[in-house]
Amino acid sequence: MSEVLVVVGPGVVADAGLLAEIAEREFAALGVLGRIEHARDAAHLLSLTNTPPNTENTASPTTNAASPADAPVSADGSRRADALWRAGDGAVVILPGPTSEVRGLITEPLGLSRRPVVWVDVERVDGVTPGEGATHLHGRGIGGLAWGIRHAVHRVRHPSQRIAYGPEREQWGDLYRPDLSDRLDRPDRGGRVPVVALIHGGYWRSIWAADIMEALCADLAGRRLAVWNLEYRRPDLHGWQATISDVSAGLSALTDLVPAAAELDLSRVAVAGHSAGAQLALRAAADGSRMSLAVSLAGVLDLVEGDRRWLSSGAVAAALGHPAPTGHQGTSGHHAPTGPDGGAGGARGQAADVYAGASPLLRVPLHVRQLIVQGTADDLDLVDFSRRYAAAAREAGDEVTYLEMLGDHFDVITPTSPIWQATAEAIVRALA
């Protein structure tokens, strides 16, 4: 069991009681000890992060939630938390707030040795580079605290190796190795293991990052699979070309850059993307990235209709840099974009080219086995896209398994959900 310290900096605009409720809920769900403290200033914050829990105060969060200066949370007694903290078995999540003295600490090492540090801004704050070993999450509202706690706990429980595939800050992947200590359970093929590359979604916006796939990383590694959790530059800050180039380079890095490639069976690679990440995964398959299985988890698979239906408040056009062009029904029953007079001239022609290259529905056949997963409680447009895509891919000659079950947009990346359990089993079978 780990201990998580949440520190709320001065000036954070959020109800103290609600922050405590969010933290307590995550502590209980993750089975960790936890406490929440409110810092008066930068010096107080540093003192809190380097001090074990107050063993004299074990009050429950519900009785102290309204008191910002005194809101410890402990699910299992402070003596145990004190021992864990002194041993370094814990993590720190900090909501820094607006003051310059506290924000100045984000880029500095906090002297917390091996304890992960996660900075969480409830507002969108681009361009923050945290100190070595720290993480910065932002722009997810007050619910970002829950994501920060999950990320901190995953870093403690499931260590990974971060490997850069380029010079930019967001060009990296986290490699998770399965535990193969039991020789009787070692896979065939000389002890090499299959690989699942994960591409996160978030409607191509930079507020969402690779951390949202970490629960799947742990689940898949527990199934004797290696996992490559890919980060990439998003188009809202870097442009569409940077995004597709990064995904291609990140997948190629499995062969070119990963030091542990000798233990990975690169003839058995699945690439799985969630939401917008599914579009990137299937586009990569169409572009020739090496994989034996492409997996769409609640994917945005028809970008033309996605833009016309104003999916996620115009996310498609914002990402691609163009609204969907006018079009006609193609021979496969899906929209084929055209230029102003059926040609490809001018800005309209450029848009047609971008959509033709990006939309998975316009790239079939992919000539790769595919698993298309969709929850019935998701956005109905995504249900529509997945059904029509699977039908079009099959008609074009691709080998497609379509898995539709009860579940919402995040159930498909929640390890305990029935739809993910069925998905994981299908991936394991495909890579056997």
Automatic annotation (TrEMBL):
<dbReference type="InterPro" id="IPR029058">
    <property type="entry name" value="AB_hydrolase_fold"/>
</dbReference>
<keyword id="KW-0378">Hydrolase</keyword>
<dbReference type="Pfam" id="PF20434">
    <property type="entry name" value="BD-FAE"/>
</dbReference>
<dbReference type="GO" id="GO:0016787">
    <property type="term" value="F:hydrolase activity"/>
</dbReference>
<feature type="region of interest" description="Disordered">
    <location>
        <begin position="48"/>
        <end position="78"/>
    </location>
</feature>
<feature type="domain" description="BD-FAE-like">
    <location>
        <begin position="189"/>
        <end position="293"/>
    </location>
</feature>
<dbReference type="InterPro" id="IPR049492">
    <property type="entry name" value="BD-FAE-like_dom"/>
</dbReference>
<feature type="region of interest" description="Disordered">
    <location>
        <begin position="321"/>
        <end position="349"/>
    </location>
</feature>
<dbReference type="InterPro" id="IPR050300">
    <property type="entry name" value="GDXG_lipolytic_enzyme"/>
</dbReference>
<protein>
    <submittedName>
        <fullName>Alpha/beta hydrolase</fullName>
    </submittedName>
</protein>
<feature type="compositionally biased region" description="Low complexity">
    <location>
        <begin position="48"/>
        <end position="76"/>
    </location>
</feature>
